[in-house]
């Protein structure tokens, strides 16, 4: 019976993300590789996605993800794979079969099952090794492209679209005081790739000026880049309208290339500073830098997004959202589960890096996302820094009610306006 269960689990480990998605009833968009959609657990609009080319899945709201079908099934079905009965239930879900029971198999049947088990183990090990090699190669190529984009961009941002963009976002006449401290760059004509042309090649969807920021890892090496396309005629955000994708969703005017995980975007200042202020976005932290007259003792930096700012949550601390509900696969209404406000103690490094010399760190919150989950994520971000640097004074700062972020506050633009 033990071998039957082991074979059952190994067969489940061999199921691809695409096949598992079909078994779980997730939405698959034609022949596309990326399949974003509402998370069956956390809700949202498109915070959950799986990639059939990379064989990966992730949930940005829950700060979880992986490259195996069992883990994806466990997240979708709200199962804990550390508990054996729930692990087997997740395996059954991706295989579409029942969990094996002792049916009095013969000696010959057990021997055949043992042989199949060993064969499946070898196949899974070979597949995992090939996937890891492909993923490492892809990551290296993407990081090299990201470095190229940043290094090709110009550091001379004065009197360029970046200068005008930041002034207009903040509604100020000039950026006096920043001096040579601004770390982002300008690309006069950056290509926005989306979709494919008639020959199946990546399509040049748009080309225009863009602000480029670099993701640096703990060793201050560039591992990725953040690209913000600019359209100075399109207020109030001054970013281009790029149309919709195949699912009629508005195409984002910001993209990240290479790796963002374990990375940090220095926006203004020096990483040797003992005081850091960190936000999700470049514009938010730049607004605070401007309001502080670009303090020389401070690094103003961006994490890129909330998941890289807060890091993974401790799975044991999830709680029910006080108001949001979702309908499960059986038609029952259930409370949306919110990731814990404290981090996974074994994954404290899985977010933006903070240098050991930092003695004051202020994390900037934004109200542009769902408030309960955002507040939990920011509390988690604060606790992560406190655990990593016990001697660092860590604090959260929030914009006043009515303002989405500190950029809105400095510019005077209210959400209710």
Helix-strand blueprint:
Blueprint: H1 2-13, H2 17-23, E1 34-39, E2 43-51, E3 56-59, E4 64-66, H3 69-77, H4 84-95, H5 107-152, H6 161-170, E5 185-196, E6 202-216, E7 222-229, E8 254-258, E9 265-268, E10 275-279, H7 282-291, E11 298-302, H8 306-310, E12 319-327, E13 333-338, E14 360-364, H9 371-388, E15 393-397, H10 406-411
Parallel strand pairs: 10-11, 10-14, 14-15
Antiparallel strand pairs: 1-2, 2-3, 3-4, 5-6, 6-7, 7-8, 9-11, 12-13
What's the gist of this structure?
This protein is of the alpha+beta class and 417 residues long. 32% of the residues lie in helices and 24% in strands.
Any overview of this molecule?
By secondary structure, the protein is α+β, with helices and mostly antiparallel strands. It has two domains: 2-103, DNA Primase, Chain A (Alpha-Beta Complex), CATH 3.90.580.10; 154-411, no CATH class. Helix content is 32%, strand content 24%. The protein has helices at 2-13, 17-23, 69-77, 84-95, 107-152, 161-170, 282-291, 306-310, 371-388, 406-411; strands spanning 34-39, 43-51, 56-59, 64-66, 185-196, 202-216, 222-229, 254-258, 265-268, 275-279, 298-302, 319-327, 333-338, 360-364, 393-397. Strands 9-11-10-14-15 form a five-stranded mixed sheet, sandwiched between helices. Strands 1-2-3-4 form a four-stranded antiparallel sheet, covered by helices on one side. The longest helix is centred in the first third of the chain and has 46 residues, at 107-152. The model has no long low-confidence stretch (mean pLDDT 88).
């Amino acid at each position: 019976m033990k071998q039957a269960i082991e074979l059952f689990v190994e067969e489940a480990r061999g199921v691809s993300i695409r096949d598992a998605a079909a078994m779980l009833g997730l939405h698959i968009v034609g022949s596309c590789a990326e399949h974003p959609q509402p998370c069956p657990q956390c809700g949202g609009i498109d915070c959950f996605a799986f990639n059939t080319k990379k064989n990966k899945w992730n949930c940005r709201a829950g700060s979880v993800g992986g490259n195996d079908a069992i883990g994806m099934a466990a997240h979708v079905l709200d199962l804990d794979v550390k508990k054996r009965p729930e692990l087997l239930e997740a395996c059954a879900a991706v295989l579409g079969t029942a969990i094996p029971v002792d049916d009095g198999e013969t000696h010959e049947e057990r021997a055949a099952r043992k042989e199949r088990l060993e064969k499946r183990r070898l196949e899974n090990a070979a597949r995992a090794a090939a996937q890891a090699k492909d993923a490492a190669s892809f990551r290296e190529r993407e990081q090299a492209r990201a470095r190229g984009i940043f290094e090709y961009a110009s550091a001379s941002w004065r009197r360029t679209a970046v200068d005008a963009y930041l002034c207009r976002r903040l509604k100020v006449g000039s950026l006096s005081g920043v001096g040579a401290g601004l770390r982002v760059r300008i690309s006069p004509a950056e290509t926005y790739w989306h979709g494919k042309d008639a020959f199946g090649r990546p399509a040049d969807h748009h080309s225009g000026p863009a602000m480029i920021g670099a993701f640096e890892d703990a060793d201050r090496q560039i591992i990725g880049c953040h690209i913000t396309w600019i359209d100075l005629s399109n207020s109030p955000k001054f970013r281009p309208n790029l149309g919709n994708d195949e699912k009629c969703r508005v195409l984002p005017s910001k993209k990240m290339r290479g790796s963002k995980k374990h990375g940090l975007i220095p926006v203004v200042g020096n990483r040797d500073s003992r005081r850091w202020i960190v936000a999700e976005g470049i514009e938010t932290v730049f607004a605070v830098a401007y309001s502080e007259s670009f303090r020389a003792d401070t690094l103003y930096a961006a994490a890129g997004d909330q998941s890289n700012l807060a890091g993974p949550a401790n799975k044991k601390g999830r709680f029910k959202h006080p108001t949001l509900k979702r309908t499960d696969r059986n038609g029952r209404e259930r409370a949306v589960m919110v990731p814990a406000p404290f981090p996974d103690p074994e994954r404290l490094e899985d977010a933006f890096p903070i240098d050991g010399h930092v003695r004051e760190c202020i994390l900037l919150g934004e109200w542009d996302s769902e408030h309960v989950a955002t507040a939990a994520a920011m509390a988690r971000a604060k606790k992560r820094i406190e655990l990593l640097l016990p001697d660092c004074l860590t604090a959260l700062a929030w914009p006043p009610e009515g303002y989405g972020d500190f950029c809105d506050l400095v510019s005077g633009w209210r959400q209710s306006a």
